[in-house]
TrEMBL record:
Residues 140-159, 167-189, 347-366, 378-456, 958-982, 992-1011 are annotated as: Disordered. Belongs to the NIBP family. Residues 382-392, 403-414 have a biased composition (Low complexity). One of its GO terms (cellular component) is trans-Golgi network. Residues 89-343 form the Trs120/TRAPPC9 N-terminal domain. Residues 1067-1179 form the Trs120/TRAPPC9 third Ig-like domain. This is Protein brunelleschi. Signal peptide: none annotated.
Length: 1332
C-alpha cells in the first residue's frame, strides 16, 4: 500500500502534526457533531452516571427550514487535544463544536474557579467552538440565577419535558440504566425541577464575565432535565453547522479561498493562486469541505454527490491528500447508508432486523470455555450483503465454482437489492427509536428517511468498492509523512467496515498496514494502538495475531520507557491473550486437547506469573505457576521440572495454593489448577474389606441357567461392561474403615513431602483419614488411604487430594493424564452397619489339657486325636461392635464327605440360637464335640498305592456294596462255597478266619474316605461362622473362618477275626486279634468286666462273647443298598444277610481302650466287618430248630455222650420249620467223622462205624411250623472220639418275600453254588466218646 513517494510530498518535522491518534474513530463519526464533556472542579460522585446519560443522547431529529427531518448524530469525547482540532478544515468532523462541563463546588471561591476553568476551555477551543453548557452542582439549591440567561421556559413546558423524559428513559434505555438515571427516588428532589429558574437567593453568584448557559443543581439532585438540555445544545449546534453549510454552498467557486491542512501552510507560499490548477484545487477542497458539512448536517445522499464531485476535481490536479480525504468521506458516507448497524452500537430488540453475522450478535470471547472451542468465535455465516464471493473469504466451496466475472455481477446485483432491504429495515428501526425521543421536536412528526433505493444512489458504493476506495485513500495518505495519524485512523475505519462486511482478509490487510506506519507515539499511544489492533483482530477471528498485539501492549505497559508502569494492566492483557495462544484457563481443557505452541505458551505463563507477583497478587502467581507446571509438564525438561517446582514452593510460601476458583476484580474467574503430575499416580483401586469383615449375602442367588462360562463376547455384554466401568462388585459397610490402594511416583529429583492426602468422594457422607508420606525420587511407593462411610447408599470415589509444594490439589480420576487413565469414578454400595467379633477357642482333651487360642479371625487350631478318641472344643465369640448379633450360624467345610464329617464334628444349633441376641460386649459359647472316627479293621497286605489319601467320597459300609456280575468279573481263590467271602465285595482283604486261609482276594477299589487303621490322617477343616445384626441383618452377614487341622493318630487295629460257637446255641464268640498301634501300654476292655493289657506295638487275641443274631431281626435299609431286596435267603442275597450279621456284631461289640501313660481313652469298633458263609451261619440263628436224641435221651449242647464200642445206639433227629412258608426238597443227612484237632477231619470211617437205616433222607415238603423226624441206628466198632455232623440242605431257593422288580427286564440275582442253595448244621456237633 505504501508508495515510494511517501516522503517526497512531506516536509520535515516541526510543523503542525496531528500527534494524538484517535483509535476509537469509526467511519460513521464523519457524520457526527463532536462535543467535549469535561468534569471540572471537585470530584462529582455521580459523574459516570451523568456521562452515560449524556452519551445516550447521540441522535436527535431536527426539522430544517424546508420541513425536512434531519438525523443529527453526536459524538461525545472526554478529552480532545487542540492539535487535532486544528485539522477541522481538512475534515470537519474533527472540529470540536460543543462543550459540556460537569462541575462541583461547595463555596463561592470554588464556584468562581469552576467558572474560570469553563471559560478557559472555551478560549482553548475558540476557533471551532459554537456553544456550551455548564452543569454545576452545589451543596444545595440556594443559587442565584445568572443575569445573562434568558428565561424562555415556563412551568407547563417543564412539566411536559419531565413527562417525556421519563417516558423516554423507560422505553429507550436499558432497564438498569433507566432505573438509575430516570428514577426520582434515587436522589432527593430539589425544591423545583428547574432549580435554576425558580430559586433566587443571594448565597452564591456567578462572576460577571461568565457568559455561558449555566444550569445549577443540588449535589444530590436527580437532574431530570439533563437530556433536554443536552438535546437543546445539539439543536443549537445543528443550526450553526447548517448555516455554515448554506454559507459554503452559496460561495462562488471562482472566489473561494484555499483550504489547507495544518502542515500545508508553507507549501503554497509564493505560488500563483490564480493559476488554473490552483483554482481547481480550491474548488475541489471547498467542495470536499461542503460535503463534510452536508454529511454532518444530516444530508447523507447529497454528501455522496459532493464527495464524488470533489474527488473528480482533486484527482485532476493531483491533490493526493485532499483526494484521499474525499475518497474516505465517500466511503464513510456509503458505509453509513449501507450498514445502518454501524450507528447502533447496542443491539436492537427486534432480532429480525439484525444480520446474522453482525458484530453486535457476536458473543464476547471468553477465556474459560470448557465445552466450546475457546480459540475461534468468528461467525462464518454472513448476511446476504456479505455473501459476495469476492469479498468474503469464508464462503462455502460450492459458491466458489462460477467464474469471477459472473460472481462479481451476481454479487453486485444482490448487494443493491439487499442493501435496499437492509436500509429500509434500519430506517424503520430508527423511526421507532426516534419516535420515542420525540420530545426533542414535539411539534414535528417523525418522517421516515428515504431508503437508498429511492435516493439517487448512482454514487453509492458497494462493499467491494468501499474497500477499494479506502485502499486508494490510504495509499494517498501514505505519501505524506505528516498524515501518518490520518492514515492510521483511516486503516482502522476501513478495517471496522470490513469487519461489518464479514470480510476478514480485507480487515487483516488494513490492520497489517497499521504496523508499518512509522509514527512518533508515546508509550500510552502505542499501547492503545496495540489494544485496538488486538480488538479488531479478535473480531475477525485472527486470535493469534490478536494475542500477539495484546502481548506487545502488555510489554509496553511495563517497559523501561513507560514512566508509569502498570503491572495490573499488563497482567490482564496477557491473560486475555490466552485464546490466541491456544490456551484456556481450565487446565483440564489444555491437557485434554494439547494444541498450540508449547514454547510460546510456557513463555507467556512465565511472564504471567511475574506480572501477577509484581502487581501484588501472590495467590494469582501461585495459581499460574501451578497451571504452568501442570499443563506444560510433558513439554518441560527434567531440569525445568526441578526449577519450576522450587519456584512454586517459593511462591506458595507467600500464599498457599488451594483448589478453589479465584475471582478477579473484573469478575473473571480463574479455575483451580491441581497438580496431578507431582506426584504421579500409576495405580488407584478401592480395596475389598478384609475377609473377616467382608459382607456376604445371607441367601445366595440361584444360578441363572446351566451355563457357567462362555468365551463368546456379545455386544450387549461389552456395552454393559463399559457402562458399569468403575462400579465395584463388592460392598463396603457403614462405620467400617475402608481402604483405597494407590501407587505414587515422585518425578522430581528430590524428596517430596505429600501431606494431608485424603479421598475425594460424593454421595453418602464419608469421613476420610488424612495421610502424610515422603516420596523418594523416581521410586513407586504404595500408599493406602483410609476412610469411614457414615451413611448407607452409593458412595462415589472421585479421586484424592494432596498438599505438596505448598499447593493443595484435588486430583480427580477423570482428569488424570494419560497413559494412566482411570474410570471417571468408582461406585461402591455401602450397606448398613454389621457387627464384628473376636473368637477364642479352648480344647479339652482326654488328658485334661486345655489349649486356648484367641484370634480375631483366620486363626488356626491344630488338634491331634487318636482313632476313637473324643474331645470337646469350646468356641467363645465376643461381640466387639455396637451392633447386636441377631443371626449366628455355624457350618463346616472340609476335605471329608458329609457323613464322616457329621461323625467327627457335632454341635447343637438349638444351643446357639438360645444365646441370641449377643449385645455389644457380650459373649456366646459354642461347644463342639470332636470324635476320631476311623475304621479299626486292618486291610492287611495291600499296597499303599491302592489307598489314596483322600476323604472326599462317601463313607459306605465295608460290606454291602452290590456289584453286578461280581462272580464272573472277579476271580476267586477258593472253590469251597462255604469258606468263600461274599462275592459282592470289591475290597481286597485277607480273611481273618483262624480256620481257613483260603479267603477271597480281589482287586481293591477302596472308598477314599476309609484309611487303614495303621496310618494317620490329616483333616483340614474350616469352621465358618456367619453372623449378622442391625438394619442389614436380613440381607447381609459377615463370615469368619476358623481353620482347624485335625490329625487322627492310629490307636488300635483288628488284624484278624473269627466266629466260634459258644457253649449254648444262642451265643457265639467273636475272636479278635487286637494290635496296639501306639507306643504306650494300653488297657483294652472287650467286655464290661474283662480287659487285657497290651504293650505298645504288640497284639493280643481276645474272645468277645455275643448273642447270636435273631432269625427275625429286621435287615437295616442302607442308601447304598437301595437295589438290594430285603430277604432272608438260603443263599440268594448274601450281601443283605452279611450286612445284617455285620450290623449285629457292630452294635453289640463294645471295645474300649485306655492309654495308661497319657491317660487317654477311646473306643474301637468292628464296623464294616466281613463274614464268610460259615461265619454267618454261626452268627445267625438257624431257621430250623433241631432236637437230637441218643437212645431216646436228648443231647444237650456241649454235652459229651459216652458209650462202649459195639454198643448199638439209636440216633434220632427232629427238625422244625420256623419259616412262614414251607420248605421244599430238604435233604437231612447224618455223617460221622473224627476231628484230629489239627485242622484235619476224617470222614472215612467205613471200618470203624456201622449204621443201620438211612443216614440221608429227602423231605419233599416241610410245611411251616411242621416237624420232621428221622431215626437211624449206629454202632461204633472201635473206641475213640467221634463227632456227628447233622445237617439239612436244600436244592431249591426259598425266598422269604418276593422283591419289587423295578425293571421288567431285571431278574432276581441268585447266587447259587452248584445244586445246593444252603446248608444248616446242628452246632455244636454231637461228640461221642467210645471206650472199650
Amino acid at each position: 500500500m505504501r508508495s515510494s513517494v511517501s516522503y517526497i510530498l512531506s516536509h520535515a518535522p516541526g510543523e503542525s502534526v496531528m500527534s494524538h491518534p484517535d483509535y476509537a474513530q469509526h467511519a460513521q463519526h464523519h457524520a457526527c457533531v463532536l462535543v467535549l464533556v469535561k468534569g471540572i472542579g471537585g470530584v462529582l460522585k455521580n459523574f459516570n452516571k451523568l456521562w452515560e446519560r449524556i452519551q445516550r443522547v447521540n441522535n436527535i431529529k431536527v426539522t430544517d427550514s424546508s420541513g425536512q427531518v434531519r438525523d443529527i448524530w453526536v459524538r461525545y469525547v472526554r478529552d480532545y487535544p487542540v492539535e487535532n482540532n486544528d485539522w477541522g478544515d481538512f475534515q470537519t468532523h474533527r472540529r470540536l463544536l460543543g462543550l459540556i462541563t460537569l462541575s462541583k463546588f461547595t463555596n463561592q471561591i470554588e464556584l468562581n474557579e469552576v467558572c474560570r476553568v469553563h471559560e478557559s476551555l472555551k478560549v482553548k477551543y475558540s476557533n471551532t467552538l459554537y456553544d456550551s453548557r455548564a452543569f454545576m452542582f452545589g451543596p444545595g439549591s440556594n443559587l442565584k440565577k445568572p443575569q445573562q440567561e434568558p428565561e424562555t421556559y415556563n412551568t407547563y413546558d417543564d412539566d411536559k419535558l419531565k413527562e417525556r423524559t421519563s417516558l423516554s428513559d423507560k422505553i429507550s434505555l436499558p432497564s438498569d440504566q433507566a432505573d438509575s438515571l430516570s428514577s426520582t427516588e434515587s436522589f432527593p428532589r430539589s425544591i423545583s425541577s428547574n432549580a435554576s429558574y425558580s430559586v433566587q437567593e443571594d448565597n452564591f453568584t456567578t462572576p460577571s464575565n461568565f457568559k455561558t448557559h449555566a444550569l445549577f443543581y443540588g449535589e444530590n439532585d436527580a437532574v431530570p432535565d439533563l437530556e433536554q438540555h443536552v438535546a437543546d445544545l445539539i439543536n443549537s449546534l445543528f443550526w450553526v453547522v447548517e448555516s455554515k453549510r448554506l454559507e459554503r454552498s452559496r460561495e462562488k467557486l471562482e472566489k473561494v479561498s484555499l483550504l489547507l491542512a495544518p502542515f500545508e501552510k508553507r507549501d503554497f507560499v509564493g505560488l500563483d493562486m490564480e493559476s488554473r490548477n490552483n483554482k481547481k484545487r480550491c474548488m475541489g477542497r471547498v467542495t470536499k469541505n461542503l460535503a463534510d458539512l452536508t454529511l454532518q448536517a444530516g444530508l447523507v445522499a447529497e454528501a455522496l454527490s459532493l464527495y464524488h464531485s470533489s474527488a473528480e476535481i482533486l484527482k485532476s490536479v493531483n491533490d493526493w491528500l485532499w483526494l484521499a480525504a474525499a475518497k474516505e468521506g465517500h466511503c464513510a458516507t456509503s458505509a453509513i447508508l449501507q450498514y445502518p448497524n454501524l450507528r447502533n452500537p447496542t443491539p436492537l430488540q427486534r432480532n429480525a432486523s439484525l444480520q446474522e453475522s453482525s458484530p453486535s450478535k457476536i458473543k464476547p470471547l471468553s477465556l474459560y470455555q470448557p465445552n466450546t472451542d475457546p480459540f475461534r468465535k468468528f461467525k462464518l455465516h454472513s448476511s446476504p450483503l456479505r455473501s459476495s464471493k469476492t469479498s468474503s473469504p469464508v464462503n462455502p466451496p460450492s459458491e466458489l465454482t462460477p467464474s469471477s466475472s459472473d460472481s462479481v455481477e451476481t454479487s453486485s446485483r444482490q448487494s443493491e437489492t439487499d442493501n435496499a432491504d437492509t436500509e429500509s429495515l434500519a430506517s424503520s428501526s430508527d423511526i421507532d427509536y426516534q419516535s420515542q425521543k420525540s420530545y426533542l421536536s414535539p411539534d414535528l412528526p417523525s418522517i421516515p428517511r428515504q431508503p437508498p433505493s429511492h435516493i439517487n444512489n448512482q454514487y453509492l458504493l458497494g462493499g467491494e468498492e468501499i474497500a477499494e476506495k479506502y485502499r486508494k485513500a490510504i495509499i494517498h495518505y501514505s505519501k505524506y509523512q505528516n498524515a501518518g495519524i490520518i492514515e492510521t485512523e483511516a486503516c482502522f475505519k476501513a478495517a471496522r467496515i470490513a469487519v461489518e462486511q464479514n470480510n476478514s482478509l480485507h480487515a487483516s490487510s488494513f490492520l497489517q498496514n497499521v504496523i508499518f506506519i512509522n509514527l512518533t507515539l508515546s508509550e500510552q499511544e502505542k499501547i492503545q494502538r496495540f489494544d485496538t489492533l488486538a480488538e479488531l483482530y479478535k473480531e475477525i477471528g485472527f486470535l493469534r495475531k490478536a494475542a500477539f498485539c495484546q502481548r506487545l501492549a502488555a510489554t509496553r505497559q511495563v517497559s523501561a520507557n513507560n514512566p508509569n508502569p502498570d503491572w495490573q494492566r499488563c497482567y490482564y492483557l496477557m491473560l486475555h491473550s490466552f485464546p490466541g495462544h491456544k490456551l484456556s484457563l481450565d487446565p483440564n481443557y489444555v491437557i485434554q486437547h494439547q494444541v498450540g505452541w508449547p514454547a510460546l505458551q510456557i513463555q507467556l505463563l512465565h511472564e504471567l506469573v511475574v506480572a501477577a507477583r509484581r502487581m501484588g497478587h501472590p495467590a494469582l502467581a501461585t495459581r499460574h505457576m501451578t497451571f504452568l507446571l501442570q499443563t506444560m509438564w510433558p513439554h518441560l525438561s527434567r531440569q525445568e521440572h526441578r526449577d519450576l517446582a522450587i519456584q512454586l514452593q517459593a511462591l506458595s510460601a507467600q500464599c498457599e495454593g488451594g483448589p478453589v476458583p479465584l475471582v478477579l476484580e473484573t469478575g473473571e474467574v480463574i479455575p483451580p489448577a491441581n497438580l496431578t503430575h507431582v506426584p504421579s499416580c500409576t495405580y488407584f483401586n478401592p480395596r475389598q474389606l478384609a475377609p473377616a469383615r467382608t459382607p456376604h449375602l445371607i441367601k445366595c442367588k440361584a444360578n441363572q441357567g446351566p451355563f457357567i462360562f462362555t468365551p463368546i463376547h456379545f455386544g450387549s455384554l461389552e456395552r454393559k461392561n463399559k457402562k458399569d466401568e468403575g462400579k465395584m462388585e463388592y460392598l463396603w459397610v457403614e462405620d467400617d474403615i475402608c481402604e483405597v490402594q494407590m501407587k505414587l511416583t515422585n518425578p522430581l529429583p528430590f524428596e517430596l513431602k505429600v501431606s494431608n492426602m485424603r479421598l475425594l468422594t460424593s454421595g453418602v457422607v464419608f469421613e476420610s483419614i488424612p495421610e502424610t508420606i515422603i516420596l523418594p525420587p523416581d521410586s513407586p511407593t504404595t500408599v493406602n488411604l483410609h476412610g469411614t462411610p457414615k451413611e448407607v447408599g452409593e458412595l462415589q470415589i472421585l479421586g484424592y487430594s494432596t498438599h505438596t509444594l505448598g499447593v493443595k490439589s484435588n486430583c480427580r480420576l477423570k482428569n488424570m493424564p494419560m497413559p494412566h487413565k482411570f474410570p471417571a469414578s468408582f461406585l461402591i454400595q455401602v450397606i448398613p452397619s454389621l457387627p464384628t467379633i473376636t473368637i477364642e477357642t479352648t480344647l479339652s482333651l482326654s488328658g485334661n489339657i486345655n489349649i486356648s487360642n484367641p484370634e480375631i479371625s483366620g486363626n488356626i487350631t491344630n488338634i491331634s486325636l487318636y482313632n476313637g478318641e473324643s474331645t470337646e472344643c469350646t468356641i467363645t465369640i465376643t461381640n466387639t461392635s455396637n451392633v447386636p448379633i441377631e443371626y449366628l450360624e455355624l457350618s463346616i467345610q472340609s476335605n471329608m464327605d458329609n457323613q464322616l464329617q457329621s461323625k467327627v464334628f457335632q454341635w447343637s444349633n438349638e444351643d446357639i440360637q438360645s444365646q441370641l441376641p449377643i449385645n455389644a460386649g457380650d459373649v456366646a459359647t459354642i461347644v463342639m464335640k470332636l470324635y476320631g472316627e476311623a475304621d479299626f479293621l486292618d486291610l492287611g497286605g495291600v499296597g499303599e498305592n491302592l489307598f489314596p489319601n483322600s476323604l472326599t467320597s462317601n463313607y459306605p459300609s465295608r460290606v454291602g456294596s452290590p456289584i453286578p456280575n461280581a462272580q464272573t468279573s472277579l476271580p476267586t481263590h477258593s472253590s469251597n462255597p462255604q469258606n468263600s467271602l461274599s462275592s459282592g465285595f470289591i475290597m481286597n482283604r485277607t480273611s481273618g478266619s483262624f480256620r481257613s486261609s483260603n479267603s477271597q482276594t480281589t482287586s481293591w477299589s477302596a472308598p477314599i474316605s476309609i484309611m487303614p487303621p495303621s496310618r494317620g490322617r490329616q483333616i483340614e477343616t474350616q469352621i465358618v461362622i456367619r453372623y449378622s445384626g442391625g438394619a442389614g441383618r436380613e440381607m447381609h452377614c459377615r463370615q469368619t473362618t476358623l481353620q482347624m487341622n485335625l490329625e487322627l493318630l492310629p490307636s488300635v487295629s483288628i488284624t484278624h477275626w473269627d466266629v466260634l460257637p459258644a457253649e449254648i446255641p444262642s451265643q457265639l464268640y467273636l475272636v479278635l486279634d487286637i494290635t496296639n498301634l501306639t507306643n504306650e501300654e494300653m488297657d483294652f476292655h472287650y467286655t464290661p468286666s474283662k480287659h487285657i493289657l497290651i504293650e505298645g506295638k504288640e497284639s493280643r487275641r481276645v474272645p468277645v462273647p455275643l448273642d447270636r443274631c435273631p432269625f427275625t431281626i429286621t435287615i437295616p435299609k442302607n442308601e447304598d443298598d437301595s437295589m438290594e431286596p430285603k430277604s432272608i435267603s438260603t443263599g440268594t442275597s448274601t450281601n443283605s444277610l452279611e450286612l445284617m450279621c455285620s450290623e449285629h456284631l457292630t452294635k453289640n461289640v463294645d471295645l474300649r481302650w485306655h492309654l495308661l501313660q497319657s491317660n487317654i481313652t477311646g473306643r474301637a469298633s468292628v464296623k464294616g466287618i466281613t463274614l464268610s458263609q460259615t461265619m454267618m451261619d454261626i452268627v445267625r440263628m438257624s431257621p430250623l430248630n433241631w432236637e437230637v436224641s441218643v437212645n431216646k435221651q436228648c443231647i444237650k449242647p456241649q454235652e459229651e455222650y459216652n458209650c462202649m464200642a459195639g454198643e448199638c445206639l439209636s440216633l434220632g433227629v427232629a427238625v422244625w420249620n420256623h419259616l412262614s412258608r414251607p420248605l421244599h426238597k430238604l435233604c437231612l443227612s447224618v455223617q460221622f467223622y473224627q476231628d484230629y484237632n489239627n485242622g484235619v477231619l476224617n470222614y472215612k470211617l467205613d471200618n470203624r462205624v456201622a449204621t443201620a437205616g438211612n443216614n440221608k433222607v429227602v423231605l419233599t415238603t416241610l410245611l411251616e411250623a411242621a416237624k420232621a423226624y428221622h431215626e437211624c441206628t449206629v454202632v461204633f466198632l472201635t473206641p475213640g472220639e467221634y463227632k456227628i455232623d447233622i445237617q439239612c440242605s436244600t436244592t431249591e431257593p426259598i425266598i422269604d418275600e418276593i422283591p419289587a422288580i423295578k425293571d421288567v427286564n431285571q431278574t432276581i440275582v441268585q447266587s447259587c453254588a452248584g445244586e445246593v442253595s444252603h446248608v444248616w448244621r446242628f452246632i455244636p456237633p454231637v461228640a461221642i466218646s467210645v471206650t472199650d
